[in-house]
Amino acid sequence: MRLCLEATTGFERLVTLAGSEPYLAEAAQELMFFSGANPVWHLARNSSLSCVDRGQRGELVAMLIIMHARDTAALREEKRDISVDGFFEALLPIVCYNKLQSLGPYEHRAGEDTHFPDAFKDWRMWFNHVIKVNHEDMIHRDHLWKFLTRVPS
Fold first, then answer.
1. Distance separating alpha carbons of residues 74 and 87, to the nearest angstrom
2. DSSP states of 47-72
3. CA-wise closest residue to 20 among 56, 79, 67
4. SS3 state of residue 79
């Protein structure tokens, strides 16, 4: 499933993105983990995926890494929403994760020098896809609601 964002006259150029619906994303999560499939392997080996844009700087691989960490944390916690700590535990190599546990903020106000686990102890997150933003002025609360609700600009 792809969403068309822009089309030139005569459809010489199409700008599309993959719209991840919650059920589609959860089905992909289960397929990848329970079948032992590797999404990077599928992208490299499947000739019918040649139309998939991998990004100019490897953005697709970065998105796969983030989603893999989210999926791993969700399976460990057996919940859709995951703890911030669980996400980073799944994302980082164990040596880096252990170092993160002892880190506090780089800058802080007096009395707020809290280590990572305490700062995010009760915080949880939920997402099921990554959106690539090409223009930083789009990262604004007015536009973020459009991304969430898919309201046209």
1. 8
2. GGGTTS---TTSHHHHHHHHHHHHHH
3. 67
4. coil
Q: Would you say the C-alpha torsion 41, 18, 59, 76 has a positive or negative sign?
A: negative
Are 74 and 80 a contacting pair, CB within 8 Å? yes
Q: How far apart are CA 45 and CA 57, in angstroms?
A: 20
The pairs formed by 54-61 with CB atoms below 8 angstroms and a separation of 24 or more are: 55/132, 59/132
Q: How many angstroms separate the most distant Cα atoms in the chain?
A: 62
- pTM of the model as a whole: 0.65
How far is Cα 19 from Cα 41, in angstroms, rounded to an integer?
21
- The 10s digit of each residue's pLDDT in 17-46 is 766 566 666 777 677 767 766 666 666 666
Q: H helices within 18-140, ranges in order?
A: 22-34, 39-45, 59-77, 84-91, 94-101, 116-119
| Structure token digits, residue 4 | 């068309």
| Whether the predicted pLDDT of 110 surpasses 90 | no
Radius of gyration of the chain (CA): 19
Distance CA 110, CA 62 (A): 36
Q: Find how far residue 40's CA is from the centre of its chain.
A: 15
